[in-house]
Amino acid sequence: MSSLHDRHRAVLPDWLALYYKDPIEITHGEGRHVWDADGRRYLDFFGGILTTMTAHALPEVTKAVADQAGRIIHSSTLYLNRPMVELAERIAALSGIPDARVFFTTSGTEANDTALLLATTYRRSSQILAMRNSYHGRSFSTVGITGNRSWSPTGLSPLQTLYVHGGVRGRGPFAGYTDERFVDACVADLEDLLGHTHDVAALIAEPIQGVGGFTSPPDGLYAAFRRVLDRHGILWIADEVQTGWGRTGEHFWGWQAHGQAGPPDMLTFAKGIGNGMSIGGVVARAEIMNCLDANSISTFGGSPVTMAAGLANLGYLLEHDLQGNARRVGGLLIERLRAVAAGVDAVREVRGRGLMIGIELTEPGTDRAAPEAAAAVLESARENGLLIGKGGGHDTSALRIAPPLSLTVAEAEEGAAILEQALRSL
Fold this sequence. Notes:
By secondary structure, the protein is of the alpha/beta class. Helix content is 37%, strand content 16%. It has helices at residues 4-11, 47-50, 59-71, 82-95, 108-123, 140-145, 179-194, 221-232, 286-289, 304-319, 322-341, 371-383, 409-424; strands at residues 26-30, 33-36, 41-44, 100-105, 127-131, 160-164, 202-205, 235-239, 266-269, 280-285, 347-353, 356-361, 386-387, 389-391, 398-401. The protein has a 7-stranded mixed sheet, sandwiched between helices. It starts with a helix and ends with a helix.
């Protein structure tokens, strides 16, 4: 009988990436741990790409899913849906956006796609500003605005995209500046760029770039951008697919580190809210959300089962102050990792906040990316019972660490010890 890996390669696309030289099949999980088909247990520091936000097999979520599935699984948005209305009410109130409306999708890609549709319709413009090193999804429109060539397989796009400086603090032409001068330079670049364009619909930006290696600008950059955008009537879309729901510890949303000029016009979300169930969505001011002049529905967005899961998961997150836990335990973890990295020549930087931590690797003594080193650390960590992620953009390679927000201090110490061994083995 062929192995599952052989069967995977026989029927699925070659470009569907798998981690590890010998890929693993994850069969079940509990808390912050998962098990593979051979019965090996792993501490999970990646959560299915930042998606298992609270815990694996969280009883409150599994019960909510089972109870709702026992009543009705599907109806579509053509019918009133109590769990969808209730979750929308909670998200609208938490969003910080005045007179907010919520539209549910099945993924972050679809959420960003919807935000782009709303922005271009509202502004009657097909021009979009995006950040260099960004990632916004896998659909045709979101690939076209992604500023990371590793994840953008085509230059074709229904949109005209212009890329702005600022998403990466430690590289590029402004890397050596102070934070204040960095922000000023990026704002000047934005002002100059707008002088060369026709009307622009929106700027879309991740407060912390996910796939790009957990890079971020100084706090306040997007507030400074917002003041410029407002003068031109340009919308600000905060892509919170990876930064939302308290993962950064200090804030519930990533945009709040840049909130001095007010909330975004739209924010997109996904991943963690469903704790593994397929939920995405857009929050927007009513006048923007309601600007479409054609009929629209969603067959699977706002499914009763996924909405029940989201309600239970969000309730658990808030009741147990997992944002506070991300701040406390994440703060301990990042300091522990910085202490480890001080003795490893291949580590250029440990960055992030809360339970969203990146470790950038380079060839020792240089600024050149070290993708082979990142792959080696990934393999070594797995062999010793820890699952992490990786990422990076232009000439960068980074390890991505994003455990469930219920991570304990003991588990943080255990994971840091495994990472220390893996990094020191380079």
